[in-house]
Every structure is written in structure tokens, then in C-alpha cells.
Amino acid sequence: MNxxxxxxLALTLSASLLNAYAVPAFxxxxxxxxxxxxGETFKDETGNQxxxxxxxxxxxxxxxxxxxxxxxxIKDSHFTNNSTSAGGYGGTIFQYTGTLNIDNTxxxxxxxxxxxxxxxxxxxxxxxxxxGAGKLVVKNSTFDSNxxxxxxxxxxxxxxxxxISNSTFTNNNAGGHDPxxxxxxxxxxxxxxxxxxxxxxxxxxxxxxxxxxxxxTTAGGISQYAYLHSTGDTFKNNTATKFGGAIFNQFxxxxxxxxxxxxxxxxxxxxxGAIYNSGVLTVNNSNFTTNTADAGGAIFNANKAxxxxxx
Length: 311
Hints:
The protein has 311 residues and is mostly beta strands. The chain folds into 2 domains: 1-143; 167-311, no CATH class. It has helices spanning 15-20, 59-64; strands spanning 29-31, 35-38, 41-43, 54-56, 71-75, 78-80, 93-95, 99-103, 106-108, 111-112, 119-121, 135-139, 142-144, 147-148, 156-158, 161-165, 168-170, 173-174, 189-192, 196-200, 203-205, 208-211, 215-218, 227-231, 234-236, 239-243, 247-249, 257-259, 262-264, 267-268, 275-277, 280-284, 287-289, 299-301, 306-310. The strands form 5 sheets. Strands 1-4-7-11-15-19-23-27-31-34 form a 10-stranded parallel β-sheet, with no helix packed on it. The chain is globular, with a radius of gyration of 18 Å. The termini are far apart. 59% of the residues are buried. Mean pLDDT is 86; it is low at 1-26.
């Protein structure tokens, strides 16, 4: 157990969380008040269902379905080879409430069985608003060789609000050694539920899954809140065994865009070498080079999907 987190604080779970995640079992350290972690290494730790190392939960916020005021900062740290038990979420961190700021930190070889090989965030079922659960802010960080062995989000599973900038995602995988097993995909990043994701200046390289080698999005009937904003991101040599070598988009709002992006050498075995769109998406001023698929080497637009190409 890491000495910086010397005490497990009281945790109150709402009925909605219990329903949403079956029977969560928390053995990781629980943070429920402001905290700063700097220059620490977390290695070979194993949690139960939620969070291999850390769980972020402010009980009052959880009870009221709000984000809460808690702020947790993690800087210049390393998370290596941590994991959750079977059916788990967040190989290193499970975030339910609060704002989590991550800067200049590496996540390498972490594993979750179900979602978020490195990090998973809860969705705001109680309030059904994007600000009803935690906010994740990541910058200048590296995610390498993290895995969601069964379902989605090799590195990060995002279900509320998130900002990711100037970070690198390499060799992450959703679906373990057989990416075809992954259900919702997102080799590096999976956006679901109420996710509102703003990405800027990131590199996604060598990630893999069945849908969305780098990024997968699925929101179903609640997609009126969800969006993907990508600006200046690079997608290189990502692969999907089915759809969307780099991006699989199913968000159906009119507020999804990819601006100033570079797609190079991405591959889908079926449709959409770089992008598979079955929702609404605007692609502006972006470059596509040597992306391959059976159909739609660069972009495949499914029936009734809306694709706007600009610039």
C-alpha cells in the first residue's frame, strides 16, 4: 500500500451506482477530500471492482448527484502494471465525483477487465446531467500498453466531462489479445453516456480494438448530451477489426467535430480506415494519408448518418 495514501476514508454509495455497476467492491484507497499527489509511483497494485489504486468519491456529492467541490491533483507520477479484479473498472483510478487533474504522469501496462485499463469515470445516472459526476482533466501525460480485456476503453473510459491535451496514447487495446471480443471498442479512449470530451494536440498511435482503434463513442438514447471535440490531434497506425481504424463515432448530436487532424496509416478490416461515422460528425481541415479498409479507406458514412466535410 502506498505510504502517501495512509488512510481509507468513509465511502457512501448511492443506490444508482450500485445498480449501475452491480456489486462494487472497493479495496483501493478512497479519496473524498482535496488531495495532491506529486512524484509518486504506484506499481503492481490490485483493487477489486472499482479502481486498482485509487477511488475518488465525495460522499455528499454522490448522495446529491452533483460533481462536488473536491479537487485531486496528480503530477509527475507513474502508474505501472496495476489492475482490478474480474468485471472491474479503472485499472488504476475509478472517479465517481470531484475534479481530477493529471499532469505529466505515465500510465503503463495497467489492466481492467471491463472498462478503462488505466482510468474509468462514473456516469451521472442520478442527475442525468454531464456535470453530475466527476470531471477529468489530463495534460502532458502518456498512456502506453493499457488494456481493457473484455469490453471498452483500453486507456480511459469517459462518461461525463473530460479534457485531454498534449498527451500520448500508444499501444492501448480494448478487447485484450483478441480485439474482436470488445463490445463498444475504443482502443485508447471510449466515450459513452453523457461524455463531453474536448481533445487537443494529442497523439494516438498503434492502438487497437474492434470499433474505433483509437476512439470509440456510443451514447444510445442519451446522446443529446454527449459530444466529441477534437482539435489538432494525430492518429497514426491505429487498427480496428471491424469499423473505424482511428475513430468510431455514434454520437448523434450536431456538436461533434474533428478539426485540423492528421490520419496516417490507420486500418479497419471492414469499414472506415480512418473514421466510421454512424452519427453526426463534422471534419474540418484534416489530412488523410494511406488509411485502408474494405470500404471507405478514409471515411465510411453509414446509412442516415450525417457527415460534413469542410476546409
